[in-house]
Write a structure and sequence with these properties.
Elements lengths: L10 H10 L14 H10 L11 H21 L6 H13 L2 E6 L2 E6 L3 H19 L5 E3 L8 E3 L12 H21 L1
Antiparallel strand pairs: 1-2, 3-4
InterPro entries: ABATE (IPR010852), ABATE_dom_sf (IPR023286), Znf_CGNR (IPR021005)
Organism: Thermocatellispora tengchongensis
Pfam family, one: zf-CGNR
Amino acid sequence: MTVTSPLVPSPAAELVLGFVNTRALRGGRERLDDAASFREWLTEAGLAGAGAQVTPDDLASARELREALIGVLLSHAGEPVREADEACLRRFGRLHPVLPLVGAGGAALEPAEDGVAGAFGRILGAAAELALLGTWSRVKACRNPPCRLGYYDRSRNLAAAYCEARTCGAQVAARAYRARRAGAAG
């Protein structure tokens, strides 16, 4: 773990956000569409080799982990915490443990397993590292319901609730305005 400015996302934050943002966002493609696309993402993220075996159960687990992380990241942006999401993360933590590796140059949390299970462990280890560094609450998901993009809150007061205030924040404000107008007219 290397300590840097809390306003700059660490590699651990980039890993968690990269995983959360495997959904088809803003014209992108779904990276957990099938075993091949998930294997491709794992390879690109440096979490597994190109020949990694990915089963349908691995794919279902990846989707479950992603949704639980999105739920927790939404709580960082001000949404209510969902116990089911936290329970899911605890279950994944028990199934995919990480080991502390300590040396003269620092410490790291490394997965206890290889392959897809190790990738899950590395993602959870990255989240734990963020918590230890005090920057976990900066990793958020956009509160605009159709978006839910994961982002890093670089504001000094941790007040960001949308990935982009000009787009998602404006969309939420416009929907609220229209709802108020419709309520006043009705």
